[in-house]
Amino acid sequence: MSAAPGRSQASSYRSPQGEGIPVSAAPGRSQASSHRSPQGEGLPVSAAPGRSQASSHRSPQGEGPPVSPTALDHAWIAARIPHQGSMCLLDAVIDWSADHVVCRAVGHTDPAHPLREAGRLGASTGIEYAAQAMAVHGALVAGANDAPRQGYLTSVRGVTLHAERLDDLPGPLSVRAERVSGDANNVLYRFTLHHGERCLLEGRAAVVLDADAR
To answer: Which parts of the chain sit beneath pLDDT 70?
Structure first.
């Protein structure tokens, strides 16, 4: 999927390889088995709406008190989403609350990035980063003792690209997913991808929870 900066996208997202986004936060699932088409069942994601948190949290690498004795780093993230190896695109949780999460990513300049195509990493792949951030948010809100609810990213809407590519941007990317509305079974997220103060991509994503149980 590609688009010139500033152009909106309204349809469900597919990765540059033509497959859906594997974004389930259920641990132990392999990346290869988690792809689902946006048509039909949708794409797996994890979220746990309705859980209250007293305040915003920051990881031990950021400011403020740590959320747990374990750093919310790449290893922590990889243990809670199905993406393993180079397909786990997020490196750390920087900030989170019941309503949002901010993650850091640094691998976008890697020539071996799994989503590179024709020698470049298109800005639309930022949707994959956002989807993984939503899965991480579900795992965080579920807490240590509860499994995240299984769900599917059914569509992305109002996506606007403010850049053409990501691989020519030195330094980390900031990925933010914010829960805008929802109920026990449906959640709407707003997401953004930033490089410093520059917004590279923004949009909204709809998540249906426990879709397999219906």
So the answer is: 1-70, 144-151, 211-214
Signed CA dihedral, 32, 70, 144, 73: sign only:
negative
What is the rounded average pLDDT for all residues in the chain? 74
Does residue 87 sit in helix, strand or coil? helix
Helix and strand numbers (H, E) in the chain are 2, 9
Q: Which residue has the tokens 């004795």?
A: 69
Structure tokens at 176: 């933010």
Task: For CA atoms 139, 193, 82, 22, give the dihedral sign.
Answer: positive
Share of the chain above pLDDT 70, in %: 62
pTM to 2 decimals? 0.71
Concatenated DSSP letters for 183-195? Answer: -SSEEEEEEEEEE
End-to-end, the C-alpha distance of the chain in Å comes to 31
At residue 64, the 3 state secondary structure works out as coil
